Amino acid sequence: MEIRRFFVQPSDINGDLIALSGDEFLHMTRVLRYKVGYKAVILANDGKERLCTVSRIGDGQAELVVDSVREVDKKSVNLTLYAGLLKNNKLDFVIQKAVELGVDKVVPFVSANCAESKFSSERGARIALEAAKQCGSAYLSEVGDLSTFDSIAEEFCNYDSVLFAYECERKTSLAEAAKGKNVAIVVGPEGGFTREEAEKAGANGATLVTLGRRILRAETAAIVASALVLDSLGELRYE
Ligand code: SAM
User: Fold this and answer.
1) In the prediction, which pLDDT does 29 show?
2) Candidate from 87, 167, 172 with most ligand 1 atoms within 8 A of CB, to mutate
3) Cα(62)–Cα(84) distance, rounded to whole angstroms?
4) What is the mean predicted confidence (pLDDT) over 135-147?
5) Which of 226, 229, 230, 222 has the alpha carbon at shortest distance from 85?
């Protein structure tokens, strides 16, 4: 039987005992038909895999005993992707690829040229959870609530570097601007950024960067920028 992966909160771990509840419990018992004695890999967003045995199922939760723990992934960089809201649920694709790459947080935002205004962070979180399980990540990327351009611009001061992918930028490349351990990337919606938004981003400490002479689709830009930054900061290595 395939040993399946489940995510818990660090607070669900008490020594060698782990409590699994909520949607992950329902998935374990109703969909995967887990029974006492079955094996599972439990992840708590800390880079560790805990091989466990189900010891009890009941009262809306499963109790597991930890058999062994191994550290599988040590992150040295934290990357946040601020992504302009896209039409036709294309942000789902961006979230899925960002998780596969190891982006830590995806924050959707509405800006002047957005043609969309609705976003479900619950749906986004479900996509992130499934992507994390599929790619074997030992971390669970966060999907933020829908924000505004002004509110995300206020957050730029929290990062070592903020890379603002601006279609009118001609000089600075992503790689030369990516610095530090806590980095953010900002990518616009299909309609792009206004000059005022680019100026405001610069005034708030972001570095305007180009992704080359071709205009990439927003979803392409988000994925390419994430991969370039993670690679330039040494995260796309197999250690
Ligand atoms: N409407 C814009 C235009 O026609 O110039 C294109 C916007 S593009 C589809 C969506 C977003 O992807 C942009 O706001 C930017 O963040 C990013 N992007 C796409 N191509 C880029 C490039 N060559 N350099 C920098 N950013 C780019």
Assistant:
1) 97
2) 167
3) 39
4) 96
5) 222
- The upper half-sphere exposure of residue 239, i.e. CA atoms within 13 Å in the direction of its Cβ, equals 10
Chain segment 50-83, per-residue pLDDT in tens: 999 999 999 899 999 999 999 998 889 999 999 9
Q: Is 174 in the pocket of ligand 1 (CB under 6 A)?
A: no
The first and second tokens of residue 205, run together, are: 């400490």
For helices 90-101 and 121-135, what crossing angle results, to 10°?
40
Domain boundaries, the chain: 4-71, 78-232
CA of 109 to the centre of ligand 1 (A): 15
Answer yes or no: CATH 2.40.240.20 is held by domain 4-71. yes
With tokens 């800006």, the residue in question is 111
Which helix (H) or strand (E) element contains residue 147? strand 147-148
Q: Which residue has the tokens 């197999």?
A: 238
Tell me how far the alpha carbon of residue 192 lies from the centroid of ligand 1, in angstroms.
6
Entry pTM: 0.95
CATH tag, 78-232: 3.40.1280.10
